[in-house]
Design goal:
Elements: E1 5-7, H1 20-28, E2 31-34, H2 37-46, E3 53-55, H3 61-73, E4 78-81, H4 94-103, E5 107-109, H5 115-123, E6 131-134, H6 140-149, E7 157-161, H7 166-177, E8 181-186, E9 194-199, H8 200-205, E10 216-220, H9 232-241, H10 246-257, H11 261-268
Parallel strand pairs: 1-4, 1-5, 2-3, 2-4, 6-7
Antiparallel strand pairs: 7-10, 8-9, 8-10
Helix pairs in contact: 3-4, 6-7, 9-10, 10-11
Length: 271
C-alpha cells in the first residue's frame, strides 16, 4: 500500500498552538520533512517526537520530489512541516503538492495555525473579508508594480513581511498607492504580540516609536473615498521651476505633503 503525505501546520508563536492530530501524525509518520531542521527540533523535542527528520526547503524542493515519491511507493508516510503555519502557504510545500496532484498520489492537509487568519481577526476586519497576498517580490520595481496592480482591490490585503524590509514596504506603499492606512500585526501568538494602526507616511516619520522586531503581517486597507493621489515628482518640478534648488525643493515638498524627506529625496533622483 502506497504511503501518504500529511501537510501539518505548526505553531506560529506559542508552542501550544498545535493540534493533537498534528502531534499524532508527526509521531506516527516514517519521516518528517522540515523547512529548517534546526528550527523544528525544539518543537519535536518539546513533544517527545523522535521521527527521522530531513530538510525540505525552497532551495532543494525540486530535487527532493523524486525521492519523496519513491518513499511513498515503498509505503512510507511523510509529514511535511514548515517553520511556522501551513506548509505551502508562503512556505515550501506547493511544489510537492503539485507533484502529488499530477501523480494522483494521496495526501491530507491538516487544519491548524495560520498567521494571516489570526491577523485578519486582530485587525478587526469587517466579517473577515480580505485578500491574502503573502510576501511581495524582492526587487523594488516588481514590488511597486504588484502594489499598483492591487490599487483598486475593494477589500483589505494582507501581506507577510520580515522586519528588515518593513521600512521598504511602507515606502513602496506610499510611492505606489499614496498614504494608505496600514495595520501592522507582529509577533502573533507570542508574548510581545502587538497591533499598530497607522498610515504609510506616519509610520515612516515615526519609526523610532515602533518596535521593528519579529515577523509581521501587514494589512493594507482599501482606499477611502476620492483621496487625491500624491504626485511627488510634480510637486518637486513645481518648486524647482519656481527657482528652488533641488535640496530646497526636497525639504519644501516633504514639509508641504507631510512626507518623509528621504522618500522625497529618492523621487528627486529620478528627475
Amino acid at each position: 500500500m502506497a504511503g501518504k503525505v500529511y501537510f501539518c501546520p505548526t505553531p506560529i508563536g506559542n508552542l501550544e498552538d498545535i493540534t493533537l492530530r498534528a502531534l499524532r501524525v508527526m509521531k506516527e509518520a516514517d519521516l518528517i520533512l522540515a523547512e529548517d531542521t534546526r528550527h523544528s527540533m525544539p518543537l519535536l523535542k518539546h513533544y517527545d517526537i523522535h521521527t527521522p527528520l530531513e530538510s525540505y526547503h525552497k532551495f532543494n524542493e525540486e530535487e527532493k520530489i523524486e525521492g519523496i515519491l519513491k518513499r511513498l511507493d515503498e509505503g512510507k508516510d511523510i509529514a511535511l512541516i514548515s517553520d511556522a503555519g501551513m506548509p505551502g502557504v508562503s512556505d515550501p510545500g506547493a511544489v510537492l503538492l503539485s507533484a502529488l496532484l499530477k501523480e494522483g498520489r494521496p495526501f491530507e492537509v491538516l487544519p491548524g495555525p495560520s498567521a494571516h487568519v489570526c491577523a485578519s481577526v486582530i485587525a478587526g476586519l469587517d466579517e473577515g473579508r480580505y485578500l491574502f497576498w503573502g510576501f511581495l517580490p524582492q526587487k523594488h520595481g516588481a514590488r511597486v508594480k504588484t502594489l499598483e496592480e492591487l490599487a483598486d482591490i475593494p477589500v483589505p490585503v494582507i501581506f507577510y513581511e520580515a522586519p528588515h524590509r518593513i521600512q521598504r514596504f511602507a515606502e513602496d506603499v506610499l510611492a505606489a498607492l499614496g498614504n494608505r492606512s496600514l495595520i501592522f500585526v507582529r509577533e502573533i501568538s507570542k508574548m510581545y504580540e502587538e497591533r499598530v494602526e497607522t498610515t504609510a507616511s506616519d509610520f515612516l516619520q515615526n519609526m523610532e516609536d515602533f518596535t521593528i522586531k519579529g515577523e509581521f503581517a501587514v494589512v493594507l486597507m482599501p482606499e477611502e473615498g476620492e483621496e487625491e493621489e500624491i504626485d511627488i515628482a510634480a510637486a518637486l518640478r513645481e518648486r524647482m521651476d519656481g527657482g528652488e534648488s533641488p535640496s530646497k525643493a526636497v525639504k519644501s515638498v516633504a514639509k508641504a505633503l507631510n512626507l518623509p524627506k528621504n522618500l522625497v529625496y529618492k523621487e528627486s533622483l529620478k528627475l
